[in-house]
Amino acid sequence: MQSNQFLKVGVIGTVVTALCCFTPILSILLGAIGISAFLGYLDLILLPLLAIFVLMTVYALWRRQST
After folding, report:
1. Helix, strand, or coil (residue 44)
2. Judging by beta carbons within 10 Å of its beta carbon (0-12, 13-18, 19+), is residue 49 exposed, middle or buried?
3. What pLDDT digit, counting tens, does each position of 2-22 carry?
4. What confidence score (pLDDT) does residue 1 get?
């Protein structure tokens, strides 16, 4: 994967995950489609996913800067 693509995936993933993690968008969506029982498990998925995307973005920026 090229550096620019890696950076784009990292930034887009960070923004989407942060929106779902810090706003009620995902809880409203899950409630609307009837699977709100999964709301208790969102933190177990979204917080590590947010950390992965932030690290991916930082790594892509570091790699871009070193080349």
Report:
1. helix
2. middle
3. 778 989 999 999 999 988 888
4. 60
Q: Which of 61, 46, 62 is nearest to 14 (CA)?
A: 46
Residue type, 9: V
SS3 (DSSP) at 65: helix
First to last CA, the chain: 15
* Residue found by looking up tokens 């969506």 in the block: 29
CA distance 60 to 4: 8
Q: CA-to-CA distance for 60 and 5, rounded, in angstroms?
A: 9
Query: What is the per-residue burial (b if ≥16 Cβ within 10 Å, else e) of 12-28?
Result: ebbeebeebbeeeebee
Q: What are the pLDDT digits (tens) for 17-46? A: 988 888 788 888 888 998 888 888 888 888
